[in-house]
Design goal:
The protein is an alpha/beta fold and 122 residues long. The chain has one domain (3-121): Response regulator (Rossmann fold, 3-Layer(aba) Sandwich). The chain has 5 helices and 5 strands; from the N terminus they run βαβαβαβαβα. The protein has helices at residues 11-23, 34-40, 60-68, 87-96, 108-121, and strands at residues 3-7, 27-31, 48-52, 77-82, 100-103. Strands 2-1-3-4-5 form a 5-stranded parallel beta sheet, sandwiched between helices. Helix 1 crosses helix 5 (108-121) and helix 2 (34-40) runs parallel beside helix 3 (60-68). The longest helix has 14 residues, at 108-121.
Length: 122
Amino acid sequence: MKKILLAEDEAVLRMLVVDTLEDEGYEVVEAADGQEALDLFNPGEFDLLILDYMMPIFSGLDVIKKIRSTENGSRVKILMLSAKSQQNEQDRILEAGADYFMSKPFSPIKLIERVEEIIDEA
């Protein structure tokens, strides 16, 4: 079973994403903010990280930078979710180390399609 770390501060959206992914057979570990995501992250444990851009304590960008600076942190795939869909923001997110970007709002079907593409690439 593929394992995903989801960091999203909006509880309703986090619940929707978790339910959607679990219905497709993924194991999901939840974090409500950037600090919790960092506390839960162990290199090699997760197949994918899904991070919200704007979170308390540490933003998604902060989390990416910290993870990418760790040994084996460069191997995990990262999908950033953001309501900021301007091209310059997307570029900034990808330059920080995210592998993929998805703008909010998104449909659960599109999320599953994207996650499956990412997992299949790995």
